[in-house]
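Q: What would this complex look like in 3D?
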Amino acid sequence: MTAEPTNFLYPFIDSEERDSSALLVDLAASARGKMAQSRELQLATLAQWAAVVETVGAEMAARFNRGGRLYTFGNGGSATDAEMTAEMFRHPIKGRPLPAWPLVDDRAVLTALANDVGFELVFSRQLIAHARADDIALGLSTSGNSNNVMHAFAEAKHRGLMTIGLAGYNGGAMAGNDKVDHCLVVRSDSVHRIQEAQDALVFELWSVVQRHLADQPTLEGSSK
Amino acid sequence: MPNPLLSDERELAIDFAALESVSDNLAAAALSLARRFAAGATMWCVAPSWPAHGRHVAVEFVHPVIMGKRALPAIYVNDDDLLGALRVLVRPGDLLVVLGTAEDGKLTSLLRRAEAWGLTTLWIGAGPRPPASAADHVLWVDGVDPEIAGSAGGYVLLYHLLWELVHVVFEHPGLLVEPPACTDEVCITCSDEGRLVEVIETRDDDTALVLAQGHRERVDITLVGPRQPGDLLLVHAGTAITALEEREL
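A: Here is my prediction, written as structure tokens for the whole assembly.
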């Protein structure tokens, strides 16, 4: 990202500046402008990926019905988004609770792997331990380039998992990668606006999964 | 069966028209936070129902997404005994950011002690609003279920913007100096009228050691009777004049 878009408003960076009223007006205007940008990007992103979200949601629902689990992962703010995605599926506000687990949760596992084998393998090594073919791997990276996320996709694909990538900018390494079954790119170069649109995408994805599961009651005799 | 969450009337799960009214409060909060950071504050983040949001707020400030922006001290606290943990962790002048609904008793019980501990407070939440006086700054996502605000991006947008605006304020060094708290001779703060304090230690001699604006003081508790650590008192001129029940504040 470049310099603050509001910089032009303040040609006089002045240590003698004392009256905050003008700044407060500008800050509030800046907030409103960014909210509008966030809303437009969210709407454009949902429209752009509507068909893909429908397809992905249907396949996720089918995998959940076969007893599959969802594993989520990412770094920094995306780690917390991975955590919230898992939470949304596991403790839904409505609908069916689904097995979802964030691979960022356990500091003992994360630091053991980071220390012993390298940070690029912290997610893939967990998938080696946990994953089965019916599972789903969902990775978030605003750049689309996070090394450990890409390693996790390769491992997940190798094990027959469905792989879903959420990226920003131009999709980075995730875009067009044969290890990522579905790559949903938020076309923006602001990390914050990308994360906000990714949250909207994940919420939509969860809604589609729940709709499909409501249409297909749990099979008797299935493990879920 | 149609999914009731995918309403046809609303394009997005978050009501942006309702969010927009938060802008003025966001601006005031950003100015206040930047000033506290400039004075050396640590920002403590608490989110018992939304640990992921608490961690996200902290990582925004500690590790900025924009290269060159300064790293600011923010820490997410996850502790079964939040009061006990924060009571020893905070320093006077620090910031407390809480995230959650107005019904969350853990949050209200913390915020009630902010004055005694000398903290500036910010409350981000959704659902029924808390009283405006519950925190120094209240950023509320109206018109949407708190669970949806939490999972569909309402809170995230607010704290992303908060971070962005704090860093705009840093470009105005002259405004980072806090104006004098009081220029008025009848200022309530300075006249020592009913300051809120928290008891931290009692003795047999009708006095108690209390935290007042984060500093330890000994006050006379003859008027309010025996007290326990954690009790909140109103103190005037070195004497506790009222004991407050948890609910009363």
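A: To summarize the key features: Residues 195-248 of chain B form a domain with the SH3 type barrels. fold (CATH 2.30.30.140). Chain B touches chain A through 53 residues (CB under 8 Å).
Q: Very helpful, thank you.
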